[in-house]
Design brief:
Chain lengths: ~500, ~500, ~100
């Protein structure tokens, strides 16, 4: 039952072939079976999940009209607040903190009757691309347990690819949904900035953060995306307008006559051979479906990584100032005579991991007087150039494409001592965040050299998220028929029974 | 080494800079929907946003923006067609986010001015205070320091934080440097703050209570030697919580700076705190280096771009400017400059107007508030508004005098009674048994008694020497314990002694 | 080659209220040259006349009505407090002064 798509589970629930309680219990069992080796979850809320499942089952039997995803289990990245459920953002500084409120995303999820299984592991405060920066230890890639699932939403991606949950929610500040989706062979979408409320999303970089869905198929992902998106008066940066119908788009799958732009700067040199090969094949598939493939030039993308690693640290240095041991969270060094200032400093030293401190210091530097214009100011101008490059490219093409990540999943520890090498892994995903547009990663097959999943990235203009699902749906269907099933069916069984 | 104020201003030219923080009187906080009501139980007016819980986001209060634009317009400012909020980053336990949402290089209002009038040696003189900017920000929580000296931050063992005030909307009004006030610097500063307060009160955007902290002034003062173009080092005095303190703090700082400069020492650029009891300032904890606030545009809030038509609408709805109102009242009440200035200085204009509105004659209302009542307030070291007497009371007293039910002298006793909390004028009159003796029979008895006691004086009057009547009238008044109407006594006395009344 | 000395890092750490060990200060300062070189690439581009983008979406004038809504209860507000007393957050003695 757990190896089904969410759409299939939904159908089974509607037909009464299974109850939400059974479905939820099956996933809780799977978590017990495999999570000791995958370590996707930081907290499993079996009691809350079963209670929610029971409510949905009761509502269903009383004939109440339910959302299509009602009763379907979901894994939630530990960066979103859920009232009363421990939320850490992967950091020691929030160990034991129980939020006093639901994030807007969680409210919407609950309202749809979706069952939250628990909170998933992540790089501390979403800073990282491997989930190795979690204060609670790494998550392991279900395809190869010696490798990382990518990050920062590695726990959510691993949970979905390990069949611990059919759906998951992540957040994507520089690629943190798309890259782990690519590395674990599933679908992940970073929605348009402002399409999903950030209220209750623990901020890393406010102008770049956006929560989004993971699924094993494009349609599943669309179903979840549809629940999450919408205007929220509690988030001033939330878009108040008409949202595209992503579910219909995922079912439309028609690329005939569409122009697909390949970004010159995001391929070739620096991309693993097997990654480039699968990407090229996917392009051929799209062409065979009637799309026109063209090449577009985005010269300023060359500076995207540099701009990102100034903007995100700058914003995070300010966003993370609230973790000060005064009102909640960890407090260290509160001995007789210690000052508030000393306690703050000691707590922040003990509570933050290496990468977080590195970015806070970098951000404080980029914003400091005398350096602001050269660093933060210049980065914001590069951002303008990237937006302009996208505008020109979207004038020529309906969607833009690239490999999601330059490589397949890398070994745990391989890049942990080389921050620059780690940062380079985000080169293809970051421009989307800087421009505030939307992007999807979906499986393009396995790389020949290591047999690991490769991600294909699709990008669309702001509030044109439906284009991602249309093109992604078409490519997915064509590839699945070539492969005789979705890529995820080739994932290792991990001891437990799927 | 003490140096007199006159010596200071003979040698040095003061330069002022004033920053006024005003708490707006919105219902809800600046960025969240918590109540702004003053004096609630600790931490009953907090939410994820104003406690800076992880994930919470600010949303701007529409009325706070409207109030800020109104203030800008009333201060003759330009209203920015586009402005942004910025984060001012520094750590402080009172401030939950450890940054203050404020505005940096893009304030909502900029380039305005306020004119104030000062009574100088050469008569009334107008000074223009240029306003650099009016911007929005948020207040901090309040800390209670426990242990050590009473409530003081220094020596406290620990602190207790209440975030009810965290996030109350604040408007900061910053002047450009104010040169050329010379020896009137303290008065100009006071007049400016008073004018601001009147403007804000007129706009209805703030309670403007300096005692409660809803209007707070920081005063920057520096001195330059007469004739020099080089600005001196400034000190910034905080916690100046009354108009009188503004004046005292600036005068005190001018003297302190001059003493340092005369001794060849340097003025330290620092924050100082005004001490209400001594009238002096004390040094704040000096920072090793200027704090680097790392301002940057607040990414959680979008730009403010007010519609030009809306601004015009607000401009049209502005209330009468206090300076114009003063001119109008001066005409309507027909008062000389000096008296008008005296009323403004004594801060009784509002209360006099309220009394006039209730029917009192402007001259009478003015003389009560500025005279007897101000004297009582001075004795008690409070402002007239803090006394128990109201405009309605004074209007009632004026009416009683007009009706002849009170003499001026009796009316003073009534004022005293009202101030002492004995009730309304009517109640005081009743309780104290105050009444004008206008029973002619009783008065005639007293007159006859006095005339028989002072036959010589009475004879002088009979002989036509009218001024001599004064002594007899005085004696009659004494006889009737001051409760007689002197005019009536005079009338009856002259008639009694066969003289024409006029 | 950019660089940030151990003392520079110490100053930034103080500004960011992080009490770092000597070892960490030294190791961060040694990594910073490389990181700064990478991010300094933003200065290679001619940015004259380019307007900075602070907000990814061109949204303006988002306000809420001035309406009071229920706050948290003090129990909720204080539920995560490391220490509390008299319905207030208890914190160690504060040395500095407010702005
Ligand atoms: Mg300020
Ligand atoms: Zn609040």
């Amino acid at each position: 039952m757990i190896n089904q798509t969410a759409a299939a589970m939904s159908e089974a629930l509607v037909k009464g072939e299974v109850t939400s309680t059974q479905l939820t219990q099956a996933h809780l069992d799977r978590i017990s079976d495999v999570d000791t080796s995958v370590k996707a979850f930081l907290h499993v809320d079996a009691e809350g999940a079963l209670a929610q499942a029971a409510r949905v089952d009761a509502d269903r039997s009383s004939g109440k009209k339910l959302h299509p995803l009602a009763g379907i289990p979901l894994a939630l990245k530990d960066v979103l607040t859920q009232d009363g459920i421990p939320t850490t953002a992967g950091s020691k500084i929030l160990q034991g903190w129980k939020p006093q409120y639901d994030s807007t995303v969680v409210s919407k999820i609950k309202e749809a009757g979706i069952v939250i299984l628990g909170k998933t592991n992540m790089d501390e405060f979403a800073m990282g691309s491997s989930t190795e920066n979690s204060a609670y230890g790494p998550t392991f890639n279900p395809w190869d347990l010696s490798r990382t699932p990518g990050g920062s939403s590695g726990g959510s991606a691993a949970a979905v690819s390990a069949f611990e949950a059919p759906l998951a929610i992540g957040s994507d500040t520089g690629g943190s949904i798309r890259q782990p989706a690519a590395l674990t062979g599933i679908v992940g979408v970073r929605p348009t900035y402002g399409a999903v409320s950030r209220y209750g999303l623990i901020a890393y970089s406010s102008s770049l953060d956006q929560a989004g869905p993971f699924g094993r198929t494009v349609l599943d992902t669309a179903l979840l995306h549809d629940v999450m998106a919408g205007h929220d008066p509690k988030d001033a940066t939330s878009i108040n307008g008409k949202f595209p119908d992503v579910v219909s788009a995922a079912q439309k799958r028609d690329v005939k006559g569409l122009k697909i732009g390949v970004i010159k700067q995001l391929q070739g040199e620096g991309y693993q051979k097997g990654v480039q090969a699968r990407f090229d094949e996917s392009l051929q598939v799209l062409a065979s479906l009637g799309a026109e493939i063209i090449e577009v030039d985005c010269p300023s993308f060359e500076y995207a990584l540099a701009a990102y690693y100034l903007i995100a640290p700058s914003e995070c240095s300010s966003n993370l100032a609230r973790f000060d041991a005064m009102r909640y969270g960890l407090r260290v060094g509160d001995s007789d005579g210690a000052s508030a200032e000393a306690v703050m400093s000691a707590t922040r030293n003990a509570g933050f991991g290496h990468e977080v401190k590195r970015r806070i210091i970098l951000g404080a530097y980029a914003l400091s007087s005398g350096y602001y214009d050269a660093y933060y100011g210049s980065a914001q101008k590069i951002r303008t150039l990237i937006i302009q490059d996208y505008a020109k490219a979207f004038a020529q093409a309906d969607v833009l494409v690239s490999p999601t990540a330059p490589t397949t999943a890398f070994k745990i520890g391989e890049k942990s001592n080389d921050p620059i090498a780690m940062y380079l892994g985000d080169v293809a995903t970051i421009p989307v965040n800087l421009a505030g547009i939307c992007g999807m990663s979906l499986p393009a097959g396995l790389a020949d050299e290591d047999g690991l999943p490769v991600g294909f990235q699709i990008m669309a203009p702001a509030m044109c998220d439906d284009r991602l699902y249309n093109v992604g749906g078409a490519l997915e269907a064509a590839l699945a028929s070539q492969w005789g099933g979705h890529l995820i069916s080739k994932a290792p069984a991990l001891g437990g029974s799927k | 080494m003490a140096i007199s104020y006159d010596e200071v201003v003979a040698k040095y030219d003061p330069v002022l800079g004033l920053e006024v923080h005003v708490e707006l009187n919105t219902e809800s906080k600046m960025f969240c929907s918590c109540s702004t009501v003053f004096g609630g139980e600790p931490n009953t007016q907090t939410c994820p946003v104003c406690l800076a819980l992880p994930g919470a986001l600010p949303v701007v209060n529409a009325r706070a923006i409207e109030s800020t634009i109104k203030i800008g317009l009333a201060l003759n400012c330009q209203i920015a067609p586009y402005s942004r909020f910025a984060r001012k980053n520094y750590f402080y336990p009172d401030m939950p986010k450890n940054f203050q949402i404020s505005q940096y290089d893009e304030p909502i209002c900029f380039d305005g001015y306020v004119d104030v009038e000062i009574d100088t040696d050469e008569g009334l003189k107008e000074f223009r205070i240029e306003v650099e900017r009016v911007h929005m920000e948020e207040d901090t929580g309040k800390s209670l320091h426990v242990g050590g000296a009473t409530g003081r931050i220094h020596g406290a063992d620990y602190s207790l934080l209440d975030y009810n005030r965290a996030g109350i909307p604040l408007v900061e009004i910053v002047t450009k440097i104010v040169p050329g006030t010379g020896k009137y610097a303290p008065e100009v500063a006071r007049a400016y703050v008073a004018e601001l307060r009147d403007i804000l009160r007129g706009l209805g955007v703030s309670d403007v209570k300096m005692e409660q902290g809803s209007l707070r002034c920081d005063a920057n003062v520096s001195l330059k030697p007469m004739g020099s173009d080089v600005l001196g080092t400034r000190s910034e005095t905080k916690n100046v919580n009354s108009l009188r303190s503004v004046e005292r703090a600036i005068r005190g700082e001018m003297i302190r700076h001059a003493e340092l400069l005369d001794a060849g020492a340097k003025v330290k650029q620092e924050t100082r705190h005004f001490q209400e009891d001594t009238g002096l300032t004390r040094s704040g904890r000096s920072k090793e280096q200027a704090e680097d606030y790392r301002y940057f545009p607040e990414p959680d809030l979008v730009p403010v771009a007010p519609d030009a038509a809306w601004i015009e609408e607000l401009r049209k709805a502005l209330p009468e400017r206090p300076s114009l109102r003063r001119k109008r009242l001066k005409q309507e009440w027909n008062v000389p400059d000096k008296e008008m200035a005296a009323m403004v200085n004594a801060d009784v204009l509002d209360i006099v107007e309220a009394t006039v509105v209730l029917g009192a004659d402007p001259t009478k209302a003015r003389s009560w508030w500025l005279g007897e009542i101000s004297r009582i307030a001075n004795d008690k070291e409070v402002s007239v508004t803090e006394l128990a007497i109201t405009p309605a009371d004074v209007a009632e007293i004026v009416a009683l005098v007009n009706k002849g039910e009170l003499t001026d002298k009796l009316a003073r006793q009534v004022v005293e009674g009202v101030v002492a909390g004995e009730g309304t004028p009517a109640e005081v009159v009743a309780k104290r048994g105050i009444k004008v003796v206008n029973d002619d029979g009783a008065l005639m008895a007293a007159i006859e008694k006095v005339c028989s006691e002072q036959p010589d004086t009475a004879q002088k009057v009979r002989d036509g020497h009218i001024p001599a009547a004064g002594a007899l009238i005085g004696a009659v008044m004494k006889e009737t314990k001051g409760q007689a109407d002197a005019a009536r006594v005079r009338e009856l006395l002259l008639g009694h002694l066969g003289q024409p009344v006029n | 080659m950019s660089s940030l000395s151990r003392d520079d890092v110490a100053k930034l750490a103080a500004l960011a209220r992080i009490e770092m060990s000597e070892e960490e200060l030294v190791s961060l300062s040694s990594q910073f040259g490389m990181i700064l070189d990478a991010v300094a690439r933003v200065q290679e581009v001619n940015l004259d006349g380019v307007v900075a983008t602070s907000h990814p979406q061109p949204i303006q004038n988002v306000f809420r009505e001035d309406q009071v809504r229920p706050s948290l209860t003090p129990e909720q507000a204080l539920s995560g407090a490391p220490a509390q007393e008299e319905q207030r957050f208890r914190v160690p003695q504060i040395l500095g002064e407010a702005e």
